[in-house]
Amino acid sequence: MPSPFPSFKSKEALQALFRPSSVAVIGASTAPEKLGYQIFKNLLDAGFPGKVHPINPKAPEILGCPCYSNIDAVPDQVDLAVIIIPAPLVADTIRRCGSRGVKGAIVISGGFSETGPEGEVMQEQLVEAAQESKMAVIGPNCQGVNNPHHPLCASWPLLTRRGPVAVISQSGTVGAALMDWASQEELGVSTFVSLGNRADVDEADLIHYFAQDPNTETIAIYMEGVKVAPKFLEAVRQCQKPLVILKAGRTPKGRKAAESHTRSLAGRDEVYEGVFRQFSVHRANDLEQLYDFSKALSYLPRLKGPRLLIVTSSGGSAILATDVAEMTGLDVASLPDQVAQRLREVLPKHCIVGNPLDLTGDATAQMYRQVVEAAASHFDAIALIFGDPIPGASEVVGRDPLQLVIYLGGAEVERQERLLFHRKGIPVFPTPERGIQALSHLL
Amino acid sequence: MPSPFPSFKSKEALQALFRPSSVAVIGASTAPEKLGYQIFKNLLDAGFPGKVHPINPKAPEILGCPCYSNIDAVPDQVDLAVIIIPAPLVADTIRRCGSRGVKGAIVISGGFSETGPEGEVMQEQLVEAAQESKMAVIGPNCQGVNNPHHPLCASWPLLTRRGPVAVISQSGTVGAALMDWASQEELGVSTFVSLGNRADVDEADLIHYFAQDPNTETIAIYMEGVKVAPKFLEAVRQCQKPLVILKAGRTPKGRKAAESHTRSLAGRDEVYEGVFRQFSVHRANDLEQLYDFSKALSYLPRLKGPRLLIVTSSGGSAILATDVAEMTGLDVASLPDQVAQRLREVLPKHCIVGNPLDLTGDATAQMYRQVVEAAASHFDAIALIFGDPIPGASEVVGRDPLQLVIYLGGAEVERQERLLFHRKGIPVFPTPERGIQALSHLL
Q1: I want to staple B255 with a disulfide (CB 3.0 to 4.6 A). Which of B91, B249, B387, B408 is the partner?
Q2: Mean residue pLDDT across chain A
Q3: CB-CB: which of A143, A322, A409 is closest to B176?
Q4: Do residue A157 and residue B323 have CB atoms under 8 angstroms apart?
Q5: Min Cα–Cα distance to chain B from A28, Å
């Protein structure tokens, strides 16, 4: 009996793309404004551990590396070809790579199915070439791959920070934005894969792969439509790690734009909603939620129950947090009497002991610790809202029970503390609403 | 017939608070960790144009300024007293200030109605003292006032950037967060007022004042509850400038927290919703919306109609934008045939000419300008999504028709371009969803 869907790409096939021993950049360039230069430079600057060969018939060398006129001229074994040449040349180039033993290709070049019937034909030829050569291909029309754990930055911009989230994106820009936010916050990613037109490797292959990848805790996906529905469903069903998905094309015109962009059926949103519910996929409603939910799910444990204590230096922020908690199924439960009594003894008299617990504007980091110690055993989570420039915040936050950190209104002190928190692997959220919304996904 | 509500504070009374000629800081301190030091230093560092007198009986001088033991000892006329001393001393101090001709006071000190019955009594005494002395009082229990246009930074942290948004906040932290975001983006505010307990000056006085303030284009308000309902309604009714309001305490527990925080009735959310609709108040659902909507309403003109063209280098971002546009009443209308034809002639062949119009990943700033020129007369707004590191973006964006800029996935180039845009007074939004959501408030 034939399989009901194409099988997943093997781990070995995908490792040639994400953990190659050597790389050829076909279409490497000496012109700094060209992607063929930028990607080649990023590979070098990120510190790729093997050999990187530029291929360009017109240049003797690029950035100090001897240049070859074609893949056949490279004297060493090449695992991965990064291809940045005009679309009409790509299929043949893949065939030549295949005959040289290259195992995988990342095709950056656009000009394929996204441009119309001619491009579709070229994309079919690309697929044929890949199948004949038994090569795994990412793209075409994509922003490449970045695995900072290898490191392999066959993408742009150059980002080298390692983290626990695998970012899989049909849109290069959406992926790059997530990468950049993570990098700015010193969080990083496990791997970024820009899928592009998905001529060969698709989102299901990657869910299946990253579900087994030891560097990946959470899988964040931006998608416009599923490529092969039963294969996607099977990948999601098997995946034991949290999946966060932002599905674009929810409205009729958005769906039409998605179908035009990806040349595939985007499908009715209700169908996606049903699937996401069935398989406990965390649905993000916008780009920031995709980022926030992935961050919470990667760095924080799951909640054992809904009981939430909110501790704050900012009464207003705590009210905003309470609203979102109540709307998302968390329980801002009463502070037990004995805890309240104990806290009234140890905290300054002007603190407002309740839930939310307001330490008021002259809160110190130490007061937060006192509250956590007194209340820990009565709550499933404690949201700590630092709403002023409170130094030392990152020194008083632990992990039991779950402690969710929100930091705002603290200017330079806040920016320093956020990085200190992140270096300890404790995520910080920028507003009460975003923090509590993310927390609710740990329920 | 008596007025149905307390009258608004006069312009002169509030100018003593926002544009004083001289300031005394009562409770100025020599200890850098104390607010009495930080606020005094911020006044100096922001460049307050008049005299600033520290009042502290124990210090001979603070930061090089001669210190006085009390307000009576100050030889010059003082317009504004900033008060940071224990609550039990505040009412008497206000009375002494009044008899010395001081016109306004900002009471930073906490320990009043927010702490319980004893504090409530002290707050009543404070109000009596202010009324007897005919002084306008902001606070108590507040984070002060910052008017970078004067400049007067009687608040913290030190922020000096001028902008068109007046920020009025019952929460010091919420206001400080907005101020800090604006400052980081080089946008600034017209004035920041932390209202605190609103013993005297309330949100209605400030709406009334900033509606006439020449430096203010838009009024952004964070509130937990209205102090005097008919006065608030009258202020909102009279205000001709855009009002953006984030009202916390929407859920039962959030409302309870709000009532405890502000010691006033927060009121049912449906009532606020009705009032906001009636008076075309822009309701923000979270802190980022409060910021985004105010930014759009300050820097961009109102839309003449819903017809929106989306131009992008990132197909995915454009789909996300299309979804939000469709959900918020904007119309991602078809590109007229003659415009499409013209653009197919001038743009590279691989660009996808439609709406959204996808310039694809190798878009240049110049291509965006070509699209705007060809399509300008057919749309009410053009959303320009720069979804890659596209240098020169800030040089090609104009104001006719309305051009909404979204920039993401551009790393360092994006950060540079954002500041260049902002220096030209063109606001930049960080995601397609946030940008289009804000745009819909210009309808």
Answers
A1: B249
A2: 95
A3: A409
A4: no
A5: 16
Q: Check residue A401 and give left, alpha or beta (phi > 0: left; psi -120 to 50: alpha).
A: beta
B162-169 and B189-194: which strand pairing? parallel
**Which of A350, A410, A434 lies nearest to residue B115, judging by beta carbons?**
A350
Tell me the one-letter amino acid at B115. Answer: T
Q: How far apart are CA A383 and CA A439, in angstroms?
A: 9
Phi, psi values for residue B270, rounded to 5°? -60, -35
Residue A392 maps to a domain: yes
Residues listed for chain A: 443
Cβ-defined contact of B358 to A115 (cutoff 8 Å): no
Residue linked to tokens 């197909």: B315
Distance from CA of B99 to the nearest CA of A (A): 31
CB contact under 8 A, B361 and A143: yes
DSSP letter string, B308-345 = EEEEES-HHHHHHHHHHHHHTT-B-PPPPHHHHHHHHH
Inspect the interface and report whether the beta carbons of A319 and B249 lie closer than 8 Å.
yes
Q: Could you tell me which residues are beta bridge partners of residue A82?
A: A25, A106
Neighbouring CB atoms inside 10 A of A366's CB total 10
Per-residue b or e along A176-215, where b marks 16 or more CB atoms closer than 10 Å to that residue's CB:
bbbbbbbbebebbbbbbbbbbbbbbbbbbbbbbbbbebeb
Domain count for chain B: 2
Q: Do B257 and B108 share a structural domain?
A: yes
Which of B256, B277, B296 is where one domain is finished?
B296
Q: How far is B77 from chain A (nearest CA, A)?
A: 31
Measured between beta carbons, the chain A residues lying within 8 angstroms of B323 are 248-251, 253-254
Structure tokens belonging to residue A157: 């911009």
pLDDT in tens, B354-401: 999 999 988 999 999 999 999 999 999 999 999 999 999 999 999 999
- Please indicate whether, in this complex, the C-beta atoms of B110 and A361 are within 8 angstroms of each other: yes
Task: Find, among B81, B187, B213, the residue nearest to B140 by Cα.
Answer: B81
Which of A317, A312, A309, A289 lies closest to A441, judged by CA?
A: A289
Q: Which residue of B has its CA nearest to A351?
A: B115
- The CATH number of residue A336's host domain is 3.40.50.261
A110 with A257, same domain: the answer is: yes
Domain residue limits at A336 = 302-440
* Chain A nearest CA to B179, separation (Å): 8
Q: Scan for tokens 């035009």, then name that residue.
A: A260
Instruction: Using alpha carbons only, give the angle B91, B94, B95 rounded to the nearest 5 degrees.
Output: 90
Cβ-contact B41, B64 below 8 angstroms: no
User: Cα-flanking dihedrals φ and ψ of residue B339, to 5°?
Assistant: -70, -45
A to B CB pairs, distance under 8 Å: 223
pLDDT (tens place) for every residue of chain A, 443 residues total = 556 677 999 999 999 999 999 999 999 999 998 999 999 999 999 999 999 999 999 999 999 999 999 999 999 999 999 999 999 999 999 999 999 999 999 999 998 998 889 999 999 999 999 999 999 999 999 999 999 999 999 998 888 999 999 999 999 999 999 999 999 999 999 999 999 999 999 999 999 999 999 999 999 999 999 999 999 999 999 999 999 999 999 999 999 988 877 666 667 899 999 999 999 999 999 999 999 999 999 999 999 999 999 999 999 999 999 999 999 999 999 999 999 999 999 999 889 999 999 999 889 999 999 999 999 999 999 999 999 999 999 999 999 999 999 999 999 999 999 999 999 999 999 999 999 999 999 99
A329 in the same domain as A182: no
